[in-house]
Amino acid sequence: MDVFRVYDLNGYLEGLNRLFDVVRIVNPISKKVIYQNGEGETIIHGDDCYEFWEKGKVCDNCISARAFTERKSFTKIEYKGDGVYMVMASPIIFGDDMYILEILKDLTETGIVTGLSGLSLKESTDIIAKLNEKVMKDDLTGAYNRRYINEKLPSDIFYAARSNEKISVIMLDIDYFKEINDIYGHLAGDLVLKEVTSIIKSKIRRNYDWVARYGGDEFLIVLKNSDKKASDMIIKEIQMALRNKVIKFDNYTIGLTLSFGTYIVEPGTKDFDEVLYIVDNNLNMAKEYGKDKVISS
User: Fold this and answer.
1) Interatomic CA distance for residues 263 and 169, integer angstroms
2) Dist CA 58 CA 49 (whole Å)
3) What is the radius of gyration, based on Cα positions, of the chain?
4) Is there a contact between 102 and 24 (Cβ–Cβ < 8 Å)?
5) Pick the catalytic residue: 217, 250, 271, 273?
6) Where are the domains of the chain?
7) Taking the chain (297 residues) in consecutive chunks of 10 residues, what is each chunk's mean pLDDT?
8) What pLDDT is attached to residue 112?
9) pLDDT of residue 151
10) 60 is catalytic
11) Distance (Å, rounded) from C-alpha 196 to C-alpha 141?
């Protein structure tokens, strides 16, 4: 645990403001700014924390969410307009609550980021964006990774509760995937994983819903503002696309089926760990009941 308890918040922030270009306190679950460089003290002034970066979306590599989840400090390089910043996020406790302290140092003119020297602004920011995205992506499939699940799903649950919306959470795995690896080899298994990911991505809403590789041959799909009817429809579309897909490896044709566990998160009713437990349990029941099944709750 790397959590620092702050007793004199004013004095603490005053010292940091002398050393860093931007000092912020944020709640990474609600995505709200609590304090930023003298604009207020333990007062929520309504801004979403990611608005600072002027990208119009939640950060791909949100180290504040990671610091909150893992209770330790993280750093990254990020860009804003034509500026390049070093960002450190650390968990702090003030009163009875935990927040994330973000301290930012402008590196634009320092030459510290040596790998970006001589590049245009667009080239530099593209490299930084790709590096931050890579941290959250599975190298093989291009889906998001387990780290992304741990950081994004709690926030999605929070926002759904605040907006009185439902979330459909779907966990799936590939039936007889071990046998595919054993019979055709791991390269065939890799191909299957990539093909399944491609089909899932084609059936969910781009830049709204998301899919992540949970581990091995298991995937997690999150459909925002969606009920059971919408979840069932997406599952049927994935199943139909998979049945119509011809997956060839060397001279072999590989047929696939999937097992699904689904759970509809009602507004304000379940936390992150409980949601994962329920949807994983539903997936296990689908496999126990003969695979190629869908179990919902």
Assistant:
1) 5
2) 8
3) 22
4) yes
5) 217
6) 4-135, 146-296
7) 75 83 89 76 68 85 90 88 86 89 83 58 73 86 94 88 91 96 95 97 94 97 96 97 93 94 86 92 95 93
8) 54
9) 87
10) no
11) 9
Q: By the 8 A CB rule, do 125 and 113 touch? A: no
The answer to whether 171 and 283 have CB atoms below 8 angstroms apart is yes
What gap in Å lies between CA 271 and CA 158, rounded to an integer?
9
CATH topology of domain 146-296: Alpha-Beta Plaits (3.30.70)
Question: What's the sign of the alpha-carbon dihedral 54, 59, 61, 66?
Answer: positive
Q: Can you tell me the distance from the alpha carbon of 156 to that of 137, in angstroms, rounded to the nearest whole number?
A: 18
Is the pTM here over 0.85, yes or no? no
> Tokens at residue 254, please?
């590989």
Alpha helices in 136-227 (DSSP H): 146-162, 177-184, 186-203
* C-alpha neighbours within 13 Å on the C-beta side of residue 80: 14
Return d(Cα 279, Cα 263) in angstroms, integer.
Answer: 6
H or E element: which one contains 83? strand 83-94
Q: What is the dihedral of CA 214, 218, 223, 227, to 10 degrees?
A: -130
Do 4-135 and 146-296 show the same overall fold?
no
- Burial class, 115, CB count within 10 angstroms (exposed 0-12 / middle 13-18 / buried 19+): exposed
DSSP element (H, E) containing 91: strand 83-94
Architecture (CATH level 2) of domain 4-135: 2-Layer Sandwich (3.30)
